[in-house]
Design goal:
Aspartate Aminotransferase, domain 2, binds pyridoxal-5'-phosphate, 2 domains, Aspartate Aminotransferase, domain 1, single chain
């Protein structure tokens, strides 16, 4: 008898998350040199990490025989100071993705449901499935979350609503007014998760921390993976009222953030210059990519983040053809967007090379 007969039944039709194709894989499969490949598939920082973070991580290496600070004390303290909150308002995760899992551990049981937008980040739905919960997906006209419809879909078994702002993969934003109107309708039994992985790329970001300060059941997720350029170290954080953080803290492993990652994140946090530089090249690169898509007559979704979704016809075929020419972008079939690819903003030379290859592939 197969071991599947004893596994949790909801896992049978769970399709594991497929990340952006790693450079090493492409090099191996296509016989290319890794240094000739440009990856614009996972919204990483093309400038790399802050030099200060690199120094701090190098320093931290000599102490790796010691267990890390399980409470991530210094990092939580620095974040609390930055947001004028208390340490009890913060939890650190192995990427903000881990906090999505904590919230599942804390609140989801088989038969519960979560609400997301139709084209939301896939991890919400995958994690819900792990816990045997159902995902209610709400249409997003114009690829923007419809918060009124999401509030209207709440049932007594709704435990969480995910709002990615800006959303990945669409790059769209919901406004402060839409958020405020939505929050006025959400009952207490629902935890609202604002996933703000791209928050630092916004010029006028909406304020969701005010709901944490008011004691509402809201978790704001941020990450060191994007503007900070520390995706490989896996550090993200959640901000919530203290009672909610206390619940989430009980669901995590004692040493979920390694000491090198803690040191890098702490140093990166204080390097505002690197973040400003990253935002600047992102703004320039995104404007360039969008102008080029327009020039090619391609439909694209104007983005608030460090990537752009563009309609190319057969997304998977374009992904493969570009990959064969050394440019890795992201095909979007798993997101119900088979005609689109998502392209991360790179350095200007990377963006130019990407456009050159896209023009070749599409014959434009
Ligand atoms: C990239 C991304 C994250 C970040 O995940 P980490 O686990 O912190 O690396 C979270 N949410 C969304 C929507 C993202 O695009």
């Amino acid at each position: 008898m197969s071991i599947w007969n004893f596994a949790n039944p909801q896992l049978k039709d769970l399709v594991a998350y497929e990340p952006g194709k790693p450079i090493e894989d492409v090099a191996r499969e296509l016989g290319l040199k890794p240094e000739d490949i440009i990856k614009l598939a996972s919204n990483e920082n093309p400038l790399g990490p802050s030099p200060k973070a690199i120094d701090a991580m190098r320093d931290a290496v000599k102490d790796v025989h010691i267990y890390p600070d399980g409470a991530s004390y210094r990092l939580r303290q620095a974040l609390a100071e930055k947001f004028d909150l208390e340490m009890g308002n913060l939890i650190i995760g192995c990427g903000s993705n881990e906090i999505i899992e904590f919230i599942g551990h804390a609140f989801l049981q088989p038969g519960d449901n979560i609400i997301t937008a139709k084209h939301a980040f896939l991890v919400y739905k995958l994690m819900a499935k792990v816990f045997g919960a159902e995902t209610i997906e709400i249409d997003d006209p114009g690829y923007v979350h419809d918060l009124d419809a999401m509030a209207a879909a709440i049932t007594p078994r709704t435990k969480k609503i995910f709002i990615a702002n800006p959303n990945n993969p669409t790059g769209t934003l919901v406004t402060q007014d839409q958020i405020d109107r939505f929050m006025a309708k959400v009952p207490d039994h629902v935890v609202v998760v604002f996933d703000e992985a791209y928050y630092e790329f916004l010029d006028n970001p909406p304020d969701t921390l005010k709901y944490v300060r008011q004691g509402r059941n809201v978790v704001v997720l941020r990450t060191f993976s994007k503007i900070q350029g520390l995706a490989g170290t896996r550090v993200g954080y959640g901000i919530a009222n203290k009672e909610l953080i206390d619940i989430l803290q009980r669901t995590r492993q004692p040493f979920n953030i390694n000491s090198i990652a803690q040191a890098g994140a702490l140093a990166g946090l204080h390097d505002q210059e690197h973040q400003d530089k990253t935002k600047k090249i992102t703004d320039e690169g995104r404007a360039y990519l969008q102008a080029q898509f327009g020039d090619m007559g391609l439909e694209y979704i104007p983005s608030y983040a460090n990537f752009v979704l563009v309609k190319v016809g057969d997304g998977n075929a374009v992904f493969k053809s570009m990959m064969a020419r050394g440019i890795i972008v992201r095909a979007m079939a798993a997101y119900k967007l088979p005609e689109w690819v998502r392209i991360s903003v790179g350095t200007m030379p990377q963006n130019e090379k990407c456009i050159e290859v896209l023009r070749q592939v599409l014959g434009k």
